[in-house]
Write the structure tokens for this entry.
Amino acid sequence: LFSSVNWLTGIHPDKLVIDLKKSDTVISAWHGDNLIGLMNGISDILTVYFPFLVVNPEYHSAGVGKEMVNRMLTRYEDYSRKSLIAYDKEAGFYEKCGFEPREDEYPLSITYLNM
């Protein structure tokens, strides 16, 4: 699934399994026996962070991603902060789902992916 969207995470399945096991919530979407989408959430008692939302490109614009986001937002509706990091090309999708950029906040990161 991660390789279908060209994420480097796809070449580290062992690390991905560890990450997903540490998640508080993982939801998936299936078409028959085929995994077509996955989203996870990591939380404390006030904040949830959504590291992954992945949908197989063959199912983009079919409502799969939006349904998973809606389920996660419902699951964490009482949390005061729901956060994610979106690349420019995905920002519009997340804004349609209710996320909004904040002028008083900005994401910071140190990223290193071992090829």
Remarks:
- The chain has a mean pLDDT of 90.
